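User: I'm writing a short report section on ligand binding and want a predicted complex to refer to. Could you take this sequence and S-adenosyl-L-homocysteine and write out the structure as tokens? A short remark afterwards would be nice.
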Amino acid sequence: MYNEIDLDKVDLSLEPPSEEPMRQYYFIKKARKIVEEESKRLGRRLTADGETFGCQMNAKDSEKLIGILENIGFEMIDDESADLVFYNTCTVRDNANQRVYGRLGLVHSMKKKNPHKKIALCGCMMQEQTVIEKIQKSYSFVDLIFGTHNIYKFAELLVAMYSSDRMVIDIWKDTDKIVEDLPAQRKYSFKSGVNIMYGCNNFCSYCIVPYVRGRERSRNSKDIIREIEKLVADGVIEVMLLGQNVNSYGKNLDEPMHFAELLQEVEKIEGLERIRFMTSHPKDLSDELIQVMKHSKKICRHLHLPLQAGSTRILTAMNRRYTKEQYLELAHKIRREIPDISITTDIIVGFPGETAEDVNETIEVVKEVQYDNAFTFIYSKRTGTPAASMPNPITDEEIKENFDRLLKVVQETARKRVGRLAGQIHSALVEEINEHDNTLVSGRLSNNTIVHFPGDASLIGTIVNVKLVEAHGFYYIGEQV
Ligand code: SAH
Ligand code: SF4
Ligand code: F3S
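Assistant: Sure. The structure tokens for the complex follow:
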């Protein structure tokens, strides 16, 4: 899915061009040669595996990296025994980091048996200096490290890696560059994520994302539309517009544009059936957006609206820039205007100084908004963020108690909300064969609820009407009508 450039015209006897993306095509061709030679030596195709640890934006980056690997001639497999493994890391909470270190231990023993194996690390964790130091010291078998701002250079970095017997490290602090038109793989043929912006400027006091993803940069709307048009021509019927705070889309463009306007442009694309987006920051969610959603035939009836905390005192300390009352007013307005919408959220428990009373306020909000689903996280201290130096007198036991109390309410509310559609007929986009029962397929309703129903692979990628026969907690068992 890119403007195919004729690699035959790339002349490797010349110096690499300085212009992007041409420079990367030069290195793709160069890397192909290396891979061909290595394959000849081994008498088989070289394999590669990509492991993703983070959010949808990370997953999208992995598709770009895999696209480059496939173009270079690697056979992609889903197994860490591959000749090249990349780990696309996340550092939003410490457990994400720990998982990566665990996997590195495992892959090290594989590398000892297979010395030509290459290991690459990239993604958000790599933007932290302390992580790089730790890897240099304790995981010196890693071959390549790069960050979030230079993934488009993957081919060039691979050539550097294959030409060096030392660890290659290339980390940029930030960038204002957006390099496009490189190959990208797509995990699904019928749906795709589309970046509309990169980075984040919000600096919520607990969050590391602005430090590892850099300043907010919106893509030009014409490039976004062009990309979606190509995807649709390729068979995609659902897109997910991706950004850390999509509601502030377009602010830094030469010709500023609001997110609601972008959505209206995307809606016009013929052949596109469904539009989703993630994530919305409550402070920037405009009335125009609500109206555009209300009147749209394509925008899905789902809004992910992270609350983080229900107590205004904690929200202020979190630098979220809304109060409990403002959030509730917004949620009510959305429910009033779009009654069939499902609202989901993220909540953090255990932010420094958060008491049981504060969590009671969060529980009140959950009960009042009636979320269709809520992702609850225990606060994880991130070095370098303002919250990391805030005193926290609350014990781990208290945090755990608060967390369990909240989770109970979240689950009760979600079960009730999700179950309200029982007996109705809704359209579902069939995504895959059911993981546990291959006589069933799994589809997604506009409001993001999953329904499993009898069907076969021929339905994958189509939108069908399904009767929601029985609610099972967070999903339905249904039948096609
Ligand atoms: N841009 C999105 C969130 C991206 S991170 C937004 O603003 O909503 C996804 C979620 O991880 C956040 O919504 C938050 O709930 C959680 N999170 C972020 N930093 C965290 C931390 N330090 N500890 C625990 N959870 C965190
Ligand atoms: Fe993190 Fe806040 Fe930006 Fe979301 S909006 S990525 S929580 S700083
Ligand atoms: Fe994680 Fe980076 Fe996403 S820190 S949540 S992968 S932006």
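A remark for your report: Residues 183 and 258 are 29 Å apart (CA to CA). Residues 200, 202-204, 207, 209-210, 244-245, 281 surround iron/sulfur cluster (ligand 2) (CB under 6 Å).
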